[in-house]
Amino acid sequence: MSDTIQNMQQEPVPSQHEATAQSEVFVIPRTIFNNVVIATVFFILGGLAAVLLMNNSARSTEQVISQAVATAIESFADTQGDRPVPSLNNPGTRLEVSPDDDPSHGPADAPVTIVEFSDFNCPYCARFVRDTLPLLRENYGDQLRFVYRDFAILGPTSVDAAVASECANEQSAFWAYHDLLFANQGSFGRERLLSYAQQAEINVEEFSACLDNTVIRDEVLADTTEAQRLGATGTPTFFINGRPLIGAQPYATFAAMIDEELATAGNNP
Q1: CB-CB contact of 96 with 245 (8 Å)
Q2: Do residues 153 and 226 lie in contact, with contact meaning Cβ atoms separated by under 8 Å?
């Protein structure tokens, strides 16, 4: 595991969830966010400086660089806005979390919607897929809608795998491909991703072209940015009708929250 990505044991789940197990979650330290900001500013800076130097040959290099720094910082600030990040640890937190147009199963008008922000390299996400999600689908049926959104934070191959899953979704094969990725974590080179597409009976030629589609990659990055805006710092992070649930919690924790939401909506658990 990278030195900058840490496993963290979460605090015990609140008593109203009727669970005593601790969650497990990959957490992004604040230093990574700081480094991303610095890297972004310097990336913008490099491009601006080159353009300004070409267009301002009569000016000094120092003046050009000063202008580029100011413009880069202003540009980066404009993309961030004045948006406080919510704390997901506050009791009673309920946020508006969009399912966007991301892959889902269950009816759109189900009384309970779970939105998961996940990373295909995350072992705790794989545990949820293996141990908990099948039980939720079996026991709640059409009362539950489950939405998968990308939070690709565990390295470049996380982004590659997320892009591949979106390409599978373009051919209506997301869930089969999703299961293959979680069953084969750590094997996300291009040839492997193509092999999984073949296993999922996807048109490999179209899939291969899609892997290089920058629009698809931008969609993955947009999901990751949205997770950060909502206050997520690790995977998996869930929102049950907007109520956050962090980490690989046991089935009983999910069931308790879902039952609460069903009772509020007037549905019998």
Answers
A1: no
A2: no
pTM for the predicted model, two decimal places: 0.71
Together in a domain, 53 and 107: no
Do 115 and 35 fall into the same domain? no
Per-residue confidence (pLDDT) for residue 7, from 0 to 100: 38
Residues 217 and 166: their CA atoms lie apart, in Å, by: 9
DSSP string, 4-20: T-EEEEPPPPPGGG---
* Residue 146 sits in the same domain as residue 204: yes
Q: H/E/C letters for each residue in 186-251?
A: CCCCHHHHHHHHHHCCCCHHHHHHHHCCHHHHHHHHHHHHHHHHCCCCEECEEEECCEEEECCCCH
Which pLDDT tens digit goes with each residue over 168-191? 999 999 999 999 999 999 899 999
3-state secondary structure 121-188: CCHHHHHHHHHHHHHHHHHHHHHEEEEEEECCCCCHHHHHHHHHHHHHHHCCCHHHHHHHHHHCCCCC
Of 137, 148, 135, the C-alpha closest to 106 is 137
Q: Is residue 269 part of a domain?
A: no
Domain boundaries, position 110: 87-264
Let me know whether 239 and 181 are in one domain. Answer: yes
Instruction: Return the closest-CA partner of residue 253 out of 238, 266, 265, 263.
Output: 238
Does 43 lie in the same domain as 110?
Answer: no
The pLDDT tens digits of the residues spanning 130-143 come to: 999 999 999 999 99
Domain end, chosen from 47, 80, 113, is at: 80
User: Does a cis peptide bond (omega within 30 degrees of 0) precede residue 236?
Assistant: yes
Instruction: Confirm if 258 and 18 have CB atoms less than 8 A apart.
Output: no
Q: Give the number of C-alpha atoms closer than 13 A to the C-alpha of residue 6, restricted to the C-beta side.
A: 11
> In sequence order, what are the beta bridge partners of 239?
115, 244
